[in-house]
């Protein structure tokens, strides 16, 4: 009888206890895609790029450093996480293989002032979105070049294209140094202007 009473008491106490909630599930880990990564082994099909465009050296610096024709050939992205690029191939055999730097012209506080380099008509300021920036991945300087490359080691290119009534001109500003925007005024190696070949 005593054992029955104890059992009844234990049963009643258990019934009065609040029900235990299951432990909350751990938050789901973000997927590789949510973190901006691509699924390992996923096929990569780079977007198509445009045709090459030819220009002829026009400024004194361009004719001195890179005489002849400049061919700019857009190149597709090398991986899903990299932008497109371009190969700048000059008539003297000088070649710069590059990757674009989207938004690069506006980086820094303050951003680099390109207006003195590109001298647009009327002297208005050059806007960052009018400048195409490139990081140089590989530079090939042909043996015997009179001036070598644009810089002792060209690291960045900024290009400004001006379309007039008769011609399209592109000016290239070449920079050395390990970072963008440059920390020193001496990072600018020079500007070089070319006119679109007809």
Explain how this protein is built:
It is a single chain. This protein is α+β, with helices and mostly antiparallel strands and 198 residues long. It has one domain. 13% of the residues lie in helices and 30% in strands. It has three helices and eight strands, in the order αβαβββαββββ. Strands 1-2-3-4-5-6-7-8 form an eight-stranded antiparallel β-barrel. Strand 3 and strand 4 form a beta hairpin. The longest helix has 15 residues. The chain is globular, with a radius of gyration of 31 Å.
Largest sheet: 8 strands, antiparallel, barrel
Radius of gyration: 31 Å
Q: In percent, how much strand structure appears in the residues?
A: 25-35%
Query: Which residue ranges are poorly predicted, with pLDDT under 50 across at least 5 consecutive positions?
Result: none
* Strand-pairing-aware structural class: alpha+beta
The backbone outline, from C-alpha atoms, is: globular
Mean pLDDT: 83
Q: How many extended strands? A: 8
Number of helices, where a helix is a run of at least 4 consecutive DSSP H or I residues: 3
Count of structural domains: 1
What portion of residues is helical? 10-25%
Beginning-to-end CA distance, first to last residue: 112 Å
Write out the strand line-up for the largest beta sheet, numbering strands in chain order. Answer: 1-2-3-4-5-6-7-8
Written as H for each helix and E for each strand, in order along the chain, the element string is HEHEEEHEEEE
């Amino acid at each position: 009888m005593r054992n029955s009473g104890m059992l009844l008491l234990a049963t009643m106490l258990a019934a009065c206890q609040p029900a235990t909630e299951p432990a909350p599930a751990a938050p789901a880990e973000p997927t590789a895609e949510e973190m901006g990564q691509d699924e390992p082994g996923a096929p990569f099909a780079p977007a198509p790029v445009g045709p090459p465009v030819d220009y002829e050296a026009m400024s004194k610096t361009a004719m001195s450093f890179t005489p002849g024709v400049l061919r700019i050939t857009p190149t597709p992205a090398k991986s899903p996480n990299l932008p497109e690029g371009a190969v700048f191939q000059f008539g003297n055999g000088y070649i710069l293989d590059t990757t674009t730097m989207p938004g690069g012209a506006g980086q820094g506080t303050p951003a680099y002032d390109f207006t003195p380099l590109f001298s647009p008509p009327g002297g208005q300021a050059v806007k960052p979105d009018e400048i195409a920036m490139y990081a140089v991945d590989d530079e090939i300087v042909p043996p015997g070049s009179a001036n070598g490359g644009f810089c002792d080691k060209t690291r960045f290119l900024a290009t400004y294209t001006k379309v007039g009534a008769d011609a399209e001109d592109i000016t290239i500003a070449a920079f050395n140094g390990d970072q963008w925007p440059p920390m020193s005024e001496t990072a600018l190696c020079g500007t070089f202007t070319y006119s679109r070949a007809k």
